[in-house]
Amino acid sequence: AESVLITQQSHEELFKVLHNNKQAGASEQKVVVVSVSPQSRASLAARYDLSSGEAGRRLTSFFKGLGVHHVFDTSFSRTFSLLESQREFLERFQRKEQDKKALPMLTSACPGWICYAEKTHGEFILPYISSTRSPQQMMGSLVKSYFAEQQGLSPQQIYHVAVMPCFDKKLEASRSDFYLNKAETREVDCVITSGEVQKMLEEQNVSLNDVEPAPLDEISVSGDEFLSHSGSGSGGYLHHVFTYAAKQLFGEEVKELTYKTLRNKDFQEVTLEKDGVAVLCFASTYGFRNIQNLVQKLKRGKSPYHFVEVMACPSGCLNGGGQVKPLPGQNQKELLQKVEALYKAERPLSPEDDTRVAELYQSWLHSVGEERAKELLHTQYHTVEKITNGLTMKW
Ligand code: SF4
């Protein structure tokens, strides 16, 4: 299964689709959409000594030169994911007395962690995992539903490629939950890593430094600034859900979060105290050693947390296995620091203050109705037997 996946989701496959488009008649051509993650932009920016924004604009130009029709930034869908996570957290917090598994809410944007949870801890852990889609799969919904409709296209007329810092994102895209049965197409057809984009550039003998920048496209909203989120390089879920919950549930405006490092820098805690009592207790756990520790705490009923941002890679997505590798003589740690600095240099904006996207989120949800919105913005998890129909799937 894995080798089929790797052939189906590779930069060669994207080249093939673009080549076929050149040969095919207009009615058979696919509209090719590429969604670039901010972590990949930062990684490629570090490789070419550019700012993240500039790397995004030059990548847009490179992809369009190859025949790609639209290039989007997944920061856009990450805002959707953050807004929906905030909503989900409030709903879970309010039913925590009746439902003992409502909290802690564990984030679900990392497929490496989800695979481990489904395979190793199955039924026990699944109720805790947030059902909100990851930014990649939120983008899948937006491109194959909202954008397709806007453009008067059917979902299968679009070939949707996501550029990600991570190989596990290919497996996420191939989950049966993200297959549009009626249209017989996936929401994300192909995932390529930052490193594979680097390979594409090299195969075409192109340096990003020599490419003319072009603005990224936007889905139905105008403006050309890149949107970013303060917090970790893995999306800032903890940061945004914490500040939102503090305000909505306890009327507290939290400007700066104070992180307490627990076992190591990849296991941190943030609390909100009222009258000496910790009313909100959030944590971030990165890397499998810390994840195992968290799961043990949960199993022993000793987890004090309401919310945990869980990521499989130490240091999170900026350090993902699909990022651009260090140059000969370049130190991995220094490269990571450079990528982190580039990522953080983007303009921080709270999802609820990002009015353009927040308005689209509201109007889209309203226009499709509650049930459909749930399908478009959420997913579900399964024990391994259920997702593989009895076949063992290697992640
Ligand atoms: Fe992928 Fe690592 Fe990020 Fe998880 S933490 S989504 S495995 S890059």
From TrEMBL:
This is Uncharacterized protein. It comes from Scortum barcoo (barcoo grunter). The lineage of its organism: Eukaryota, Metazoa, Chordata, Craniata, Vertebrata. The chain holds residues 101 to 495 of 495 of the full protein.
